[in-house]
Amino acid sequence: MKPVRKAIIPAAGLGTRFLPATKALAKEMLPIVDTPTIEYIVREAIASGIEDIVVVDGKSKRSIEDHFDSNPELENNLREKNKLELLKVVEETTDINMYFIRQSHPKGLGDAILTAKDFIGDEPFVVLLGDDLMQDEVPLTKQLIERYHETGESTLAVLEVPHDQVSEYGVIDPAAKVKEDGLYRVKSFVEKPQPEDAPSDLAIIGRYLLTPEIFEELEQTKPGKGGEIQLTDAIDSLNNRQHVYAHEFKGDRYDIGSKIGFLETNIEFGLKHPQTKDQLRAYIKELAAKL
Ligand code: UTP
What we know:
Blueprint: E1 6-11, E2 31-32, E3 35-36, H1 37-47, E4 52-57, H2 62-67, H3 72-80, H4 84-92, E5 97-102, H5 109-114, H6 117-120, E6 125-128, E7 132-135, H7 140-151, E8 154-160, E9 170-179, E10 183-191, E11 202-210, H8 214-220, H9 231-241, E12 244-248, E13 252-255, H10 259-270, H11 277-290
Parallel strand pairs: 1-4, 1-6, 4-5, 8-12
Antiparallel strand pairs: 2-3, 6-11, 7-13, 8-11, 9-10, 10-12
Helix pairs in contact: 8-9
The protein binds uridine 5'-triphosphate (UTP).
Uridine 5'-triphosphate binds next to strand 1 and helix 5.
């Protein structure tokens, strides 16, 4: 079994839910407290043992490349002023093997994955979407890699969501629970079903472990929902020739792809951050008393 060493982070979407902020700035650079969302994602990949990361980016995404590049002027300044903690934070993310590919037109998540085909080659790999931050004792990407060691097949992360929200997600039709600890064989995958048509409330969240055969399926996939090449459709076809499994995530998931989720996550992370937690708690109590 080949090891899982590579990750794709698709970041070429238009980010329309965050306009006007995303007119010139990548959505993935918006911060949760003081850290761009993409840095949390990259840290999860590294903590899971991933060695090489490719970011699929689009227009106005230079800031992502700059963020993971060294910045000698800033580093010297921090060193001279003896701000060594900050220097460590800044330098930590410049030693990662990061690569960047351009998706020239945002034709969908499936198309973004396909642009990284040559980078991945003939190996299993993971996909991490920046719209979801995950927290658990073992990082979710690592959980998927451990599942791959058991099954040798593609495995997606799913989460039970409220029934009236299933139309925002890809949803699985589970065939059978393979293990009591939440591993499912899957009959089919449905992109954004209406609640009355949804085969379950198990929604695909932004972490996938895929075998390289997915690229052959993506090449055959026609535009689906929203006129975009949907990764879910390609996974559904892959499931006809190889098993695709779903791993139920039991940790905390922060949906930062919507305005309200983004604000809630900033508050929750701010309530844990050593520099902001006390003042923020006091402020929230004061504010709540006025509401
Ligand atoms: P979303 O559906 O969240 O779209 O894409 P979006 O453009 O990022 O955001 P909104 O909905 O307009 O606000 C899911 C993931 O797929 C990537 C996005 O960057 C995001 O990580 N994506 C989507 C691409 O890389 N290319 C595409 O053509 C579409």
